[in-house]
């Protein structure tokens, strides 16, 4: 797993992946996003050991002023879990929203597959927004039960069943 | 009835535009039965289109009756279907027998008015909505050489999207 973080600018992905291509690497699943002016990359790379990979990528990340981190992982493609529940959480921004919401979900055995958060509103009155896709064996009812106390605490939580249409 | 082979992307034939059905004979009925058997053999599949089984004619089947508590019309056998009206817009997750191991979020019309022929060539019209309308749009897309991959939207984008 190749992790790259640093100040965002155009061309980061192009330069990085060009180096990997030149080194004969294959790319797998990836998540890349701009967060607060930083660009972050998490990328499955196959075809070179950690040392060779570092040699390949380090010149690029150094030139772009990015931090690089490499972890050998046991990872395979085609291991997707289909989410069956989406949870939307929002409220006036305050410490603890993520910790409380995810702690509640964890007690229901909710497996988070994808989680995105954002801070919206204004600098004076920020609102926190979190969107989670996950899988829970016991379905929506179990999730509704564990998140009920959050609503009392002033957080808006909406639980939606995800039913993938296969055509 | 036979379960037919389902083409899988990147097979370029899936991007081909299908032609209208003009002959409504016994052969068409056999094909409809085979297409339905193929749909039912796909795990969890609620629709199928003729080009998915290498027949580039405008036929789509949709049957969402396995899903509880949604408005639906049972098994729809749509020959030369046309979407006459579409209203609303709704997000939902889709997958496809022709695109294994990937699902994505797609924007579709919430409700449709559809016109189509039956196995005898008779024209019919109906309204559908929600999950069933999603399936109808997904299958009709196949007739135009479109996959749901052509319409996938980012879920992250939802956080930023504002309706002014």
Written as H for each helix and E for each strand, in order along the chain, the element string of chain B is HEEEEEEEHEH
Beta-strand content of chain A: 35-45%
Overall tally of structural domains of chain A = 2
Strand order of the largest sheet of chain B: 1-2-3-6-7
CATH class of the largest domain in chain A: Alpha Beta
- Specify the CATH homologous superfamily of the largest domain in chain A: ACT domain
Helix and strand layout, with pairings?
The complex is a heterodimer of chains A (167) and B (164).
Chain A: E1 2-7, H1 12-22, E2 26-35, E3 38-46, H2 50-64, E4 67-70, E5 85-92, H3 97-107, E6 111-121, E7 126-135, H4 139-152, E8 156-161, E9 165-166
Antiparallel strand pairs in A: 1-3, 1-4, 2-3, 5-7, 5-8, 6-7
Helix pairs in contact in A: 1-2, 3-4
Chain B: H1 26-41, E1 47-49, E2 59-63, E3 75-87, E4 90-96, E5 99-108, E6 111-117, E7 123-129, H2 130-143, E8 152-153, H3 157-160
Antiparallel strand pairs in B: 1-2, 2-3, 3-6, 4-5, 5-8, 6-7
